[in-house]
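Hi support team,

I'm filing this because I wasn't sure whether my run with guanosine-5'-diphosphate finished correctly. The job status page said complete, but I'd like someone to confirm that the output block is well-formed before I use it downstream. Pasting the exact inputs I used:
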Amino acid sequence: MEVKKALFLISNADVTKCPAPDRPEYAFTGRSNVGKSSLINMLVQDKSLAKISGNPGKTRLINHFLINDFWYLVDLPGYGYAKVSKKERKKFNTLIRQYILTRENLYCLFVLIDIRHEPQKIDLEFIHWLGISRIPFAMVFTKADKLKPQEADKNVADYSRKLSETWEELPPFFVSSAAKGLGRKEILDYIQQINESN
Ligand code: GDP
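And here is everything the job wrote out:
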């Protein structure tokens, strides 16, 4: 799929004020600094969208974009943001979880993981929660250009092994680099495939 048109629609701190759930929706989340804005920018190839999602005022909100007049791309707040108070963190987590649990048109949630790191408790717990909540999700290992290909493969394999301890079937995963445009076609084709099968 090619992104021919990308339009910023609305930012929200209130799940009930999100656009009507009348289109296929794909959301992106992960720990802050994981490369979410860069990935979204790379996918839609529009710097002005990245500016919106990189704007500190918007990073704690749910940002809706309309792609190709057909589907919604949603930039969710990053979780586990270390620089804010526990109370604030709890507020974002509640917002993210509320969005995930109530958004009936959410076809796939992309969970971003920095490919350089070992599996982190906060991500594993979040993924576990997605599983028990029966949320369709896929994983995106970001910043692949920061590792040698063999190291990247090893880290992905280690992650898969870790997930296999609790999961019978592994979620789909993608390896990406916003710097190199890696994973763009695969992620967009995956979205198209889901759009076409619904
Ligand atoms: P966010 O907080 O998750 O939205 O993360 P950003 O997209 O703002 O990225 C955080 C930092 O990682 C920035 O300094 C980016 O330039 C850098 N970054 C993001 N993606 C990549 C990537 O694919 N490759 C490299 N080398 N750096 C990246």
